[in-house]
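Appendix B.2, paired examples.
Example (i):
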Amino acid sequence: MSIKKIAERAGVSPATVSRVLNNPEYHCSSQKVQDRIRKAAIELNYTPNKAARNLKLGAREEEEKTYYVNVLMTRVDQSRTDPFFSELLRVIESEIHKHFCILSKVWYMPVFSDDKKCQNTDLDRMTAEMYEGVRGKCDGLIIIGKCNKTALQKLNRQYKSVVSVNRNSTNSAVDEVLCDGKKVASMAVNHLIDLGHKKIGYIGDCRNEARFRGFTETLQKHGIGLELDYVVETKQTEAEGYDAMKKLLQSDNCPTGIYCANDITAIGVLKCLNKFKSVGYTPSVIASDDIEEAQYSKPMLTTVHLPKEEMGKFAMYLLLDRMRGGHSSVARMELEGKLMIRNSCMNAEEAEWCDYVI
């Protein structure tokens, strides 16, 4: 299906369609326009014209099967409350098109990341209906985000080729590309400790969560006790980050440093601190992901960068290799995070600035 047909359905120019589908860094002036283009591409089974691409590159065209790839988003619903996963999806969509595959379905099903909800859900029926809905167009599945162990097993039975892109390991249940959340959290908390902080809080998911384990284990390693009053469990959205910080502000004994499990939660925290800056409380705030918004907050958010581009690239590499029969054993690729030091953190004894403005 040509880019021109997608452009007609989405009501935009072919050039805009090309930029959206092939460049994960490109952003339309409107998110709705971008969503229309991606929806049209899926509905029309878009795949790049390999013959035209090879002609342009002077390469010889070879016969090769066209694979249909599905994507399951387990951490966000269609409101896309966590930009990290939207950014990662853009990378994976571009990789799918680069390899002349067809993205046939994207599911947004946060139930799969919630162990408690999975216990009360008919997972057999749900996974069977998912697979049936894409029958004939389901060569491989990429799961973005944490997935319940039982649900993952059932998905793996339905699909011959599954790759997980995650911060929580599947423990060799399926092929995976991992940026270990435990190590990411440890890197962030160590930075706070290096700055002299001993009263350190946590805002984020706590249940079966690698980042929370990394947080607690790093404190223990440095002989710092876990203060339960400093831990606020949230669903890791901006709104819940705001509410979590508001809850901490009501305490007479607040942490001097706070690790937020993801950037969008931290942005909610900063917005709350900005609104209530008259109280004079200025904790150091650090997070993980390095979404685009993290570079535009004031203070600019110190965070741990997760290599989304490489995660998406290697996920597609593993999926293609398995679909082509290149490997049968479970494969794991682990990528490292990188500390991005900005100005939302300071030495524990120097907490005198008050620049919380988004």
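Example (ii):
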Amino acid sequence: MELLEKLIEALIMLIPALGIVAVVYVILTKYFENQQTTHEAEWKQRKSKDYLPIQMQAYERLVLLLERINPERLVFRVNKPGMSARMMQAEMLKVIRDEFDHNLTQQLYISNEAWAAVNKAREETIKVLNMAAERTDKEGSSFEFSTAILETLGSFKKAPTDIAIEIVKAEYRKRLR
């Protein structure tokens, strides 16, 4: 009997202790949920404050890249008096490669679709230059090469870089909303 009384007495003391443990558990669970919600809200705020400007800058830099590798602009930027067609082609391809390499990391901040458009514009621009080079005499001048570039580009509805710029701008505007 004495054992049964001690067991009942222990249960009587254990029940309030279990109740206290349950209440503390519920309170701590709610506290940690609130802390997590607060941290997530702070992270979102920090992300929009810190990340969004970097992302917008990436869009700006990619539009600048596309403008700088636009064949029409390249013709005027790269052409120097006395330059041969092949020298000009090599210089233009170098400029495209350097500009692209300089902006490779910007792909971290844009969608895969926008990056694919930038990459395609680069590839298509190189094709335009190579097509124009094929149409130019090997001993030709930079003027002849420039003319062939502009004629080749004229056969397109839009320059490849212009198409990519439209895609990048559209994504930029969508992100601002």
